[in-house]
Each structure stands twice: as structure tokens, then as C-alpha cells.
Amino acid sequence: MKVVLITGCSSGIGLRIAVMLAEDEKQRYHVIATMRDLKRKDNLVKAAGDLYGKTLFVAELDVCSDESVKQCINSIKDRHIDILSNNAGIGLVGPVESIPMDEMNNVFETNFYGSVRLIKEVMPDMKNRRAGRIIVISSVMGLQGVAFNEVYAASKFALEGFCEGLAAQLLSFNVTLSMLEPGPVHTEFELKMIQGMKEKEWPSVDPDTVNYFRNFYLPGAVDIFEILGQTPDHIAKRTMSVIEASNPHFHNLTNPLYSPILALKYADETGCLSVQAFYCMLFTLRPLMNVGMPVLKYLTFGFMRKWRISPN
Ligand SMILES: NC(=O)C1=CN([C@@H]2O[C@H](COP(=O)(O)OP(=O)(O)OC[C@H]3O[C@@H](n4cnc5c(N)ncnc54)[C@H](OP(=O)(O)O)[C@@H]3O)[C@@H](O)[C@H]2O)C=CC1
Ligand SMILES: CC1=C(/C=C/C(C)=C/C=C/C(C)=C/C=O)C(C)(C)CCC1
């Protein structure tokens, strides 16, 4: 049985990855589903049903604490982990000028250093054994910045840069490192990101910026979740296929509708094309989006035709 350690399993994507691997018909996985607060384990335990204590085990791990990470890894037999899935993460939206530095630090501490901390702890044993697989739940925002998500995107960009370097180094040790880059996924993350923002006041921010955030970005984000939103199950299946692939890819975008948006970025080295396209989508074309998916497809492929970009 392969030992899999997953972070952030109290809800959402981490919970689904843990349960899906534990449910494997061939019982190939011994899943250590970790979370920072064991009082939040009920949903996971319920979803695991009979598999709890058989193929799925719960352990405490706070990705922001050196001590917690060491304690958890040391509690595993021979510290042997075949597959590490870094999933724990938090979002942060809003006008940058209103976000306190300690909130920004917390996002980096969780999303970037949280993953780095786990990788540092687990990677030396994988290198020694010349075997191992690391899967990092990044985001499309690790490849493409989105207005009003600057700090979150920066934390995921940092993760992409860190892992791109490491992936090349690890190849000579037969350890693979893969990123998953989901677009919007319906989890508690969405609720925290959108619902929590509706009532919030922004006293220290100029009225134009508050207007752009409230009346352009937030409705746009709601539409994007409605039109493009995937389920945690979808991301869990994709994670499973990365785990099972003989030669897993480094980038794994889970939502094909994002490929044209990213193509814009790589098609124009000045970066102007993608900044302008995002500007248009946010401020000019957004009202069209709620007409539905076909319109979004038409718009993104329309941009590509206009600038003669191939979808592949
Ligand atoms: N939902 C989306 O639209 C997208 C999400 N992602 C990424 O997917 C990952 C999972 O998010 P998702 O399932 O959607 O959101 P959820 O909010 O449902 O899950 C996030 C998980 O991370 C845990 N977590 C937060 N901080 C820590 C910490 N310090 N130590 C350990 N665990 C922690 C949370 O635990 P607790 O319950 O204790 O807060 C929770 O279990 C994140 O990395 C996110 O950035 C990427 C693209 C899109
Ligand atoms: C694409 C796009 C938008 C919003 C995208 C959002 C909200 C994406 C959310 C992605 C998530 C949640 C990733 C998690 O890691 C805008 C700015 C509304 C308009 C321009 C096009």
C-alpha cells in the first residue's frame, strides 16, 4: 500500500482527495488525511464511512507550524510517505490598500511556506529512496493574476516558481512534482471569498476602487463561479489521475476554459495583451458573461482568433 499524506482535509478538495483515494477498489492507498484542528474532522469521518480506520486515518497538522509538521511526519512509521499532496490553502480578496500586512503574511505563510515546509520535511527521505510523488494544489491564479486577488495570486505564483525549479532537480532522484491548477471550485473557499465580501465595508479605500470591487469584480466573480465552477470531486479525480500516471505532467489545468486566457499571456511577451484582455473582460464585457458558458467560450476564442493564437 502506498502511504499518502494530504494537508487541509477538513473540507473541500482535500477532503474529497482523501476519501477518493481511501475508496480505491484495489486498496492501493493508506491515506493520512491531516487537518490543523481535529475538532473539524466530522465531515471527513462521515464521508469516509467504514473506511475510517481501515484505509483512511486522520492526523493533526498545521502547515504554518514547524513543530506540528515535524510531529506529524515523525509519527508515521519510518517517516515513509510515498505521495505528498499539499492542498491546505486560504484565499484573500479585496483592495490591496485595505489589507493589513499581517493578513498578507498569513496567506504566504499558509499557501507558500506551508507547502515549502511540508516538502522540506518529506523530500529528503523521498530522495534517499529514489522514489516519491509530490502533488501541489496551486491555482490558475498561480499562472495568471486576477484583479483584487493580488496577494493570493502572488502566493500561488511563488509556489509555481519554487516548484518549477525543484521539479527539475528532483527528476534525477526519480521523484516527480506536479502542480494542479484549478479554476473556481465550489467549496467553503468560494463562500469565504464571495459571500464574506458582500457585507464588508472599505473605509480606507477610495470610492472608485470600492465601486470597481463591489460592482464589477464581485458580480464577475459570482458569474465566473457559476459558469466555470467545478466540483471538488472533479479536482480529486484529476489528482488521482496525476498520482496514477507513469509520467505525470508538471502543469495540470483542471478547467479547459482557462487555456485560452493563459494562451493570451504566453502569446505576447510584452504582457499587454493579457492585461488588456482582463481589463476588457472585467470592465466592458462582464455583463455578457451571465448569458452563459457559450458566450465566455466565444469571447475567449474570439480573442484568440483576433490575435491569431492557436488553442493548442
Ligand atoms: N475553491 C477554489 O475555487 C479553488 C481552490 N484552490 C486551492 O485548493 C486548495 C483547497 O481549497 P478548498 O478545498 O477550495 O477550500 P476549503 O476552504 O474548503 O479548504 C481549505 C482547507 O485548508 C485548510 N487549512 C487552512 N489553513 C491551514 C493550516 N494552517 N494548516 C492546515 N490546514 C489549513 C482548511 O482547514 P480549516 O478547516 O482548519 O480552516 C481546509 O481544510 C487551496 O490551496 C486553494 O488555494 C485552487 C483553485 C481554486
Ligand atoms: C476570469 C475573470 C475574472 C474572475 C476570475 C475569478 C474570480 C477566478 C477565480 C479563481 C479562483 C477562485 C481560483 C482559486 O484559486 C474576472 C476578474 C471577474 C473578470 C475577468 C475574467
Explain what the structure shows.
- Pfam families: adh_short (PF00106).
- InterPro entries: 17beta_DH (IPR011348), NAD(P)-bd_dom_sf (IPR036291), Sc_DH/Rdtase_CS (IPR020904), SDR_fam (IPR002347).
- The chain has twelve helices and seven strands.
- With 312 residues, it is of the alpha/beta class.
- The protein has a domain at 2-187 and 229-258: Rossmann fold.
- The protein has a seven-stranded parallel β-sheet with strand order 3-2-1-4-5-6-7, sandwiched between helices.
- The mean pLDDT is 91.
- The site of NADPH dihydro-nicotinamide-adenine-dinucleotide phosphate (NDP) has 29 residues, from helix 1, helix 4 and helix 6.
Number of beta-strand segments: 7
- What gross morphology would you assign? globular
Instruction: List unreliable stretches of 5+ residues.
Output: none
Output the strand order for the largest sheet: 3-2-1-4-5-6-7
State the helicity in percent bands: 40-55%
CATH superfamily grouping of the domain at 2-187 and 229-258: NAD(P)-binding Rossmann-like Domain
Structural class: alpha/beta
The proportion of strand residues reads 5-15%
Q: First CA to last CA: what distance?
A: 38 Å
What's the pLDDT, averaged over the residues?
91
What's the Cα radius of gyration? 20 Å
CATH architecture heading of the domain at 2-187 and 229-258:
3-Layer(aba) Sandwich
Short characterization:
The chain has 312 residues and is an alpha/beta fold.
List keywords for this structure.
binds retinal, Rossmann fold, binds NADPH dihydro-nicotinamide-adenine-dinucleotide phosphate, alpha/beta, 312 residues, single chain
